[in-house]
Write a structure and sequence with these properties.
Elements (H helix, E strand, L loop, with lengths): L2 H44 L6 E4 L5 H14 L6 H12 L5 E7 L5 E12 L2 E13 L8 H16 L3 E3 L7 H7 L16
Parallel strand pairs: 4-5
Antiparallel strand pairs: 1-2, 2-3, 3-4
Length: 197
């Protein structure tokens, strides 16, 4: 066999292997998309979480809160030192802190979502502003109005407390969150700049 023929056979084998990998990859991608659609459909079919309660975070919530907090940090690819989690928890439990926490609970008391806010003054108004810093819902409860209920709770609280604004931001690519947020109002067009120190 000539060297040219051997090279041709090897090239054809590589091409055939590549095509097989592409076909398997496309098929796996389609299966993953179909599974995502199926799971999303199951969650939506389950409907809103019945008898959902939103309340301030309490000391007894620490184990459930920490599970959600760690999942939230994982979602954003953040590995925080345990000392940061401890400081955050202490701030959330300190009534004089500007950082406040709320949880969404099912009727059995299981914490299924969390919201952390920061209250702060504003230079253009004497009213306090409310920044929604963290919003997280356990994956099994997404698409079941838990996030919507948490934001609605904060909106009503802002109105009753006389706050001047409730605002938040998310990554431009977080399509699921943006679908939820667009139910309240469109994005305002501001661009965020961050100097990490």
């Amino acid at each position: 066999m000539s060297a040219s023929l051997i090279i041709l056979i090897l090239v054809l084998a590589v091409i055939a292997s590549t095509i097989a990998l592409i076909v398997r990859g496309v098929a796996a991608g389609r299966r993953a998309v179909n599974e995502t659609i199926r799971l999303r459909g199951e969650r939506h079919a389950a409907g809103p979480v019945a008898d959902l309660i939103v309340r301030p975070l309490a000391v007894a919530d620490r184990p459930q809160w920490e599970k959600l907090w760690n999942s939230y940090c994982d979602f954003y690819g953040q590995e925080l030192p345990s000392s940061t989690t401890e400081t955050t928890w202490k701030r959330l439990m300190d009534e004089s802190s500007a950082l406040k926490g709320f949880v969404a609970c099912g009727p059995d008391g299981t914490v299924v979502g969390l919201a952390h806010i920061v209250l702060h003054p504003h230079t253009w108004s004497p009213k306090t502003l409310c920044y929604l810093e963290d919003l997280f819902v356990l994956p099994a409860f997404r698409g079941r109005d838990v996030g919507h209920t948490l934001i609605t709770f904060l909106w009503r609280k802002a109105e009753s407390e006389g706050w001047g604004r409730l605002y938040w931001h998310t990554e431009a690519t977080n399509a699921a969150a943006r679908r939820l947020y667009d139910r309240f109002c469109p994005a305002d067009g501001y661009v965020r700049y961050t100097l990490t120190l």
